[in-house]
Write a structure and sequence with these properties.
By secondary structure, the protein is of the alpha+beta class. Helix content is 50%, strand content 20%. It has twelve helices and eleven strands. It has helices at residues 25-32, 36-41, 43-56, 60-63, 72-82, 84-100, 117-122, 186-190, 193-197, 202-214, 220-241, 244-266; strands spanning 4-9, 12-17, 23-24, 64-65, 69-70, 104-107, 111-115, 131-138, 148-153, 160-165, 169-174. It has a six-stranded mixed β-sheet with strand order 10-9-8-6-7-11. A three-stranded antiparallel β-sheet has the order 3-5-4. A two-stranded antiparallel ribbon has the order 1-2. Helix 1 (25-32) packs parallel to helix 5 (72-82) and helix 10 (202-214) crosses helix 12 (244-266). The longest helix has 23 residues, at 244-266. It starts with a strand and ends with a helix.
């Protein structure tokens, strides 16, 4: 099933495809009782679509999918053709869809949420890179009217707790795990063998995960280092597990200082 972002105006739900930003023209027409055929037969529309085809190098069928989903530019133009206020709203939706994709928040490496423009504006500390947080918990599960969620950043030198309102979450999607080896155990799929063997806390583990995903895997040298680590660290991790003293020494003198430096300067 295709993921969509739903919004309501004039009592009508209007959907937008998250993957490409296309907006449902039929729902737009329904909310203002406009006729899409009249819009497409309009001379100004035909001229606009021809220029759009040349500019974007897309055919008419790709600008309007299945005679339902309109390209963001088409949806904006159709919105203004129907009603100026609707056109303004659609324009804002397209801008919001573009902006929110720049500020993903990764939750426990299991799902990613994207904030609305208002949420991004309120949480000014967000930057144009993924923000990794350890948890996203409802503040009070017993109160159904409480729409506030609590999150904690782990990639800073100090824990920072902030709130996210449910209305500020535009869209969320699960993170797919595309690993080629099906016989990997859950421990092997985590990757940080030595850090796990030393019984490091989630905060420390997540910093190493973030450093791997956001720094090492972005270049060939880092990818080679990760491959080398995956190949040679499991035997070392098994040896560490057998010695409580080795666990404590490596955790306190190596892993924690490195995690602090990574969280402070590299992320």
């Amino acid at each position: 099933m295709t993921a969509t972002i739903s919004r309501e105006i004039y009592g009508t739900k209007i959907e937008q495809l998250y993957s490409n930003g296309y907006i449902n023209l039929l729902q737009m027409a329904q909310c203002k009782r406009c006729n899409i055929k009249d819009y497409l037969q309009d001379k100004a529309t035909q001229k606009f679509l021809k220029r759009l085809e040349k500019s974007l190098k897309l055919s008419r069928k790709k600008l309007i999918l299945e005679e339902t989903w309109g390209h963001p530019h088409v949806a904006i133009d159709f919105g203004y053709w129907c009603d100026r206020y609707l056109g303004m709203l659609v324009h804002q939706w397209v801008l919001e869809w573009n902006i929110t994709r720049l500020y993903p928040i990764v939750i426990k490496r299991k799902k990613t949420i994207y904030l609305t423009q208002a949420g991004i504006k309120r949480l000014r500390f967000l930057k144009s890179k993924p923000l990794y947080i350890d948890s996203l918990l409802q503040k009070d599960k017993q109160k159904t009217d409480n729409k506030e969620y609590i999150a904690t950043i782990y990639n800073k030198n100090k824990d920072k707790t902030f709130s996210i309102n449910k209305e500020e979450i535009l869209y969320s999607k699960p993170i797919k795990n595309n690993q080629s080896k099906k016989n990997n155990s859950s421990e092997n799929s985590s990757g940080c063998f030595i850090v796990t063997a030393c019984d490091a806390d989630k905060y420390t583990l997540d910093i190493f995960y973030a450093f791997r995903n956001r720094v090492l895997l972005k270049n060939r040298v880092g990818q080679n280092l990760v491959s080398f680590y995956y190949k040679h660290s499991p035997p070392v991790a098994k040896m560490i597990k057998k010695s409580p003293l080795a666990k404590k020494i490596i955790l306190e003198l190596l892993i924690k200082p490195v995690a602090y430096l990574l969280g402070r300067f590299a992320l």
